[in-house]
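I am still getting used to backbone structure tokens and would like to learn alongside you. Label the sequence line and the structure token line clearly, so we can match residues to local backbone shapes. Would you write everything just below, so we can both look at the same thing?
***
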Amino acid sequence: MRKLMIAVGGSLVLAAPLASADVVGAGASVSYWNSDFSGDVVNKGDVVDIDKDLNMSSDGNANFTANFEHPIPVLPNVRLNYTDISQSGRGKIGPSKFGDIVNADVNSELDIEQLDATFYYEVLDNWVNLDLGLTVRKFDGELIVRDTRGFYDVSETKVDAVLPLGYASVRFDLPFTGVSVGGEGNVISYSGDSLYDVNVYGQFDVAVLRLRAGYREMAIDYEDDDDRLDVKLSGPFASIGVDF
């Protein structure tokens, strides 16, 4: 499998003046993301549209985040994130075959699993909060398409990669309310491959409890040998967490 490994985002961090937390802090959250799928999957030159051909339905996906901040200026803060995306559908492959399947009703499953480790610095830490850093993302994607006629024809497409992405997060706090708005994102584009994962949100903090709701969009365009994943996911999300 081909691995794409390039360094991005470090110059943004090194060029910016750094702030640091006054004390050690930590937080964790769990979120529910109701995403719609669109795009194409390529298997050895055969192309299938996951919306029109496979009729992938919107579904909920789980996301878990944990972060650790400290007052040592030269060391980055750490954020871990895990996203598990699973979609299924029942559609039809026409005369343009996909693998060994042609002119058949099909069941399909698309799974994407992502694990992020983000290393970031606080550039601003007041009513405007700005973090910049680098994310290392391990992702695995798999599409399985099965012929429903009992012929046991199965097409399997897999991509996997370890990608470095630039990371940025900005939040604006509204004084004396516990309410804030913000956005964050990861992005990389190199040699025909690209990935971006961005969201915008509103947030409410009360004591150590943190509630957040917003909209997230992710697009993956990645080729691994003869397989290619070119998909977009987008939809609303809501999360609940704690911040100490």
Remarks:
- The first strand starts at residue 25 and ends at 43.
- Residues 1-16 have pLDDT under 50 and may be disordered.
- DSSP finds one helix and eleven strands in the chain.
- The chain has one domain: 10-243.
